[in-house]
Design a protein that fits this description.
The complex is a heterodimer. By secondary structure, chain A is mostly beta strands. Chain A has no helices and eleven strands. In chain A, strands 2, 4, 5, 6, 9, 10 and 11 form a seven-stranded mixed sheet that branches. In chain B, strand 7 and strand 8 form a beta hairpin. The chains are: A mainly beta, B mainly beta.
Chain lengths: 114, 110
C-alpha cells in the first residue's frame, strides 16, 4: 500500500543544469499535481495532469519548466537551465478522480541550486 | 486573484486546551475547503474536507466550520496533545484546482 513516491529526496544542481523530479502516484490514481513550496510559505500550484494529458498548467512558468505524465511510468517535472530562484521543495500529489477528492502528497524533492 | 490568509504567527497552547486556527479568503468562491497537517520535511497529510453547503464537520478531536458569508473557516483541535504540534494548512478548491494558505504552526506544550 505504497503512498506517493517522489525521488530524489534531495537534488543539488549548479546554475544552468537541468533538474528532473519524479513522482509515482498512489496505485489507482490517475490525477497528478505538482506544487512548489518555499520556506515559511504555502504550497503554490504549478500543474495538474492526467495520464498523457496536461489539464492545467496555469501555475507553471512558461519558460524552462515542463511536466509530463506518460501512459507508463512516473510523472516528471523538468526544469531546464536552473537558476538559484528555483531552489525550493517540490511536492507531488495524486488523487483518484476529479470530484474534490483529498490530495495524497509525497514527501517532496528538495532542490538546491548552487 | 484569490488570497488565502492564515495566521503566520505560531500558536502556542498548553496540553489539554483547545487549539483554534483561522483561514480567511478573498476573491474566491470555493466549492469546498480542506485542512491538511504538515510536519517538517514531510508532505501535507489530509485531515478534513467541508463543502460550501456544510456549516460544520467533525472527526474525532477535530472540528471544522465553514462560513461562506464571512469567507472564513475555523479549525479546532480539542484536548490538544504535544503530538498535535505541526503546521496546519487550509486549501480551497473548485473541482481539481486547489489553493493553499501558508499555514499556521501549532505548538502544544506539555
Amino acid at each position: 500500500n505504497a503512498g506517493v513516491m517522489q525521488n530524489p529526496r534531495h537534488l543539488v544542481r549548479r546554475r544552468g543544469q537541468e533538474a528532473r523530479l519524479r513522482c509515482s502516484p498512489m496505485k489507482g490514481h490517475s490525477h497528478v499535481y505538482w506544487y512548489r513550496q518555499l520556506p515559511e510559505e504555502g504550497l503554490k500550484f504549478m500543474v495538474y495532469l492526467q495520464k498523457e494529458n496536461i489539464i492545467d498548467e496555469s501555475g507553471m512558468p512558461k519558460e524552462r519548466f515542463s511536466a509530463e505524465f506518460p501512459k507508463e511510468g512516473p510523472s516528471i517535472l523538468r526544469i531546464q537551465q536552473v537558476v538559484r530562484g528555483d531552489s525550493a521543495a517540490y511536492f507531488c500529489a495524486s488523487s483518484p478522480s476529479r470530484d474534490n477528492s483529498p490530495l495524497h502528497f509525497g514527501n517532496g524533492t528538495r532542490l538546491t541550486v548552487t | 486573484s484569490q488570497k488565502i490568509e492564515q495566521n503566520s504567527e505560531a500558536l502556542n497552547i498548553q496540553e489539554g486546551k483547545t487549539a483554534t486556527l483561522t483561514c480567511n479568503y478573498t476573491n474566491y468562491s470555493p466549492a469546498y475547503l480542506q485542512w491538511y497537517r504538515q510536519d517538517p520535511g514531510r508532505g501535507p497529510v489530509f485531515l478534513l474536507l467541508i463543502r460550501e453547503n456544510e456549516k460544520e464537520k467533525r472527526k474525532e478531536r477535530l472540528k471544522v466550520t465553514f462560513d461562506t458569508t464571512l469567507k472564513q473557516s475555523l479549525f479546532h483541535i480539542t484536548a490538544s496533545q504535544p503530538a498535535d504540534s505541526a503546521t496546519y494548512l487550509c486549501a480551497l478548491g473548485n473541482f481539481n484546482k486547489f489553493y493553499f494558505g501558508s499555514g499556521t504552526k501549532l505548538n502544544v506544550k506539555p
